[in-house]
Structures are given as C-alpha cells and as structure tokens.
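Problem statement: downstream parser choked on a complex file, so we are re-checking the raw output for the 1-hydroxynaphthalene-2-carboxylic acid run. The parser issue turned out to be on our end (a line-ending mismatch), but while we're here, posting the original submission so the record is complete.
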Amino acid sequence: MTPSYDDTQIGRARVTDSPELLAYYKELEELDAGALWTVANDIEPWYPRPRSVPAHWPYAKLRPLVHKALPMVAADDAGRRVVMLTNPGRRELSAAVGLLYTGLQIMGPGEAMTAHRHQAAALRFVLEGTGAWTIVDGQKLKVGPRDFAITPNGTWHEHGNESADTPCIWQDGLDIPLVNALDAPFYEVHPELHQTPGEIVNSSLLTYGAHLLPYGAERWTRPYSPLFAYPWEPTYASLRNLARTSEGSPYDGVIMEYISPVTGGSVMPTMSAHIQLLRQGQHTKAHRHTGSVIYTVAKGSGHSVIDGRQYDWAEGDIFCVPSWSWHEHANASDSYDAVLFSFSDFPVMRSLAFHREEAFTDNSGHQPLV
Ligand code: 1HN
C-alpha cells in the first residue's frame, strides 16, 4: 500500500474552526487543557519531521576559533573549555542534532582540570595533539589523534594535557539533550577535586583488549563497556582488513561498530560509535533511518549528500544527519581511502523499538541535488 500523506482524509484531524469552537478552545486554555484535534496532525506526523537540519562544521574554520579560547579562559574556570556545535534548529537545547550534543575541547600544554561526574554519558574522539589524558573512575587513559574513548554515565572524570608545548583538541559527544529531555540530569563535583589514578595507564585495554573476560565473580556487570579506550592503530588495521575481505554495505561502505567486549553491543546504553571506510572513489547509495548521527572526518576528503544537498568535507570536519534524512557518502580520492568516525543514538532507537530503515531506490540509489 502506498502511504497517503493527505491530512484531510478520514482518520486524520480535519475539524474546521467556528466561532463556537474558538470560544471553546479559550475556555479549555483557561483550565490548562486543550482539544487534541487542534494539534493531532502536528504531534503525530506521518513520518519523522526533525527540527534539526543537516549541518556541516568545517574544521579549517572552527580550529582558529577553538584556539582563540585558549588564552582567554582558564579551563577550570570554564568547567571545560569547549566550543559547542549547535544545530540551527536545536539551539535552545544546545544540541548538534536530535538529542545529541557535540563540541570541540581544547587543552593547553601542562593543563589539568578537576574531576566531576554526571548523569550524561560522554565520548571523545581526538583530533590533534599527543599529550591528552583523562582519568575515568580512577583509570588513567592516554589518547592521541583518532583515538576513541568513553566516559560512561556516572563515572568520575578529569582531563589534562601533558605535552610541554602543544595544545590538544578532542571532540566531546554527550547525550545531554536526551538526559535533559527526560528530566534526569545530575551533576557532582569530586569531593577531593581529583582522583588518585592507578599506576597502569590504559588498564582497561590490558584487561579487556586481549579477547579475554574475567570469569566468575569478577565478570563485568555494568551497563557500559569495560573497555574505556579504543586506539586508532588497531581500529584502522581492523577496518582495512575487513575492506580486503568484505564488500561492505552499499550505504555505509566498510563499517564497524566500537563494541563492549562483554555484550558485543554498543559501548554505552545511549550512544553508539562507528568507524567506516570509503574505498578509493567509492560513492555509496542513499538510505535513511531513524536515529541521529554526528560524523567526524577521521581521514581523507569527500562529500556527503544529505536531503539532496551536497556537503564537501575534509579531515577534522564534523557534520550531522538528522533522523530520517536521506544520506550518501563519497570519497573524493581515487588513491586514498576516506574514514568517517560517527556516533549516534541508535542504542536508544533500538531499545525502544523505534528503529526503521529505508533505501533510496530511484535514480540508481542516488539523490538528485536540490
Ligand atoms: C563535560 O563534562 C565535558 O568532562 C565536556 O570534558 C563537555 C558538555 C556538557 C556537559 C558536560 C568533560 C561537556 C561536559
């Protein structure tokens, strides 16, 4: 059956205003009540109509402005020194797309911040600098360019940069707008301001990164991955090897999910992260799905077509795909692969049974440009 999007048909609200009805609506309003049929078609649209719009933040333009904040505000005075990326349709929520937040955090040489924890979950994708560290629930992680790390909800965290001379910039991704939409935020400053880190750096990688799980009573039972850091080198090697042996997805190229080694599922209950490789000259077909995605160009250059508009991207650029928006990706190079890091609210969509996906079938799978 071809769906009909005609709001005048039977089964849709189609009441015509009259002076009596308008007076009636006023009476209801005075009691903080209302007639459902005046809003029914808006609150139950035929398909997702996100307020978020596709957006693209070029790193070449953002980077100088991120650096500009470094001498102007002390990191600990600011809480965190972050330039956030706000979707034009979601400014009031500080969301980059849907109910996801993202920003670029810069830390100066030798800088260190105090510890806090909150209900919101966070993830990091490092863009530049080699001195960044973070302590997550007493575990020190050192992260470099293109490394991925998580700060699950409720974990104590503090960060710094141990480089003597180079700032570092990483991208933060948080589910803050989701937590706030659900009226569930909590925030705490560490009673001693700092944690005492264990001696082993990237301890979770030693324990959980060798395809072994503690057995019996020691088994990890928290709802997030026990692995806190996912270094770039093995990630890229794994992706490249899969590209050698597998065709990949027509819509995403060769794509892999960062997983919890305990569940094989997403790293955290609210956010998932993926890494995808577009082969030399590859141009994927378009599809759309529920769920919002924020992409970061880890490597290479190319473009994505989102709802019929082309966005050209280069390394470090960030762009977003709102829920149910058509999207396809293209690698501009005939000699090098391109790699996109992304994070999304897919775990929320799946656990609430909201996941839907559709292929673009016209025009050999490619959207006409508008
Ligand atoms: C936060 O705690 C961090 O700890 C970064 O680095 C960005 C954005 C909103 C709320 C909390 C951090 C954040 C944040």
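For whoever reads this later: The chain has one domain: 55-212+222-365.
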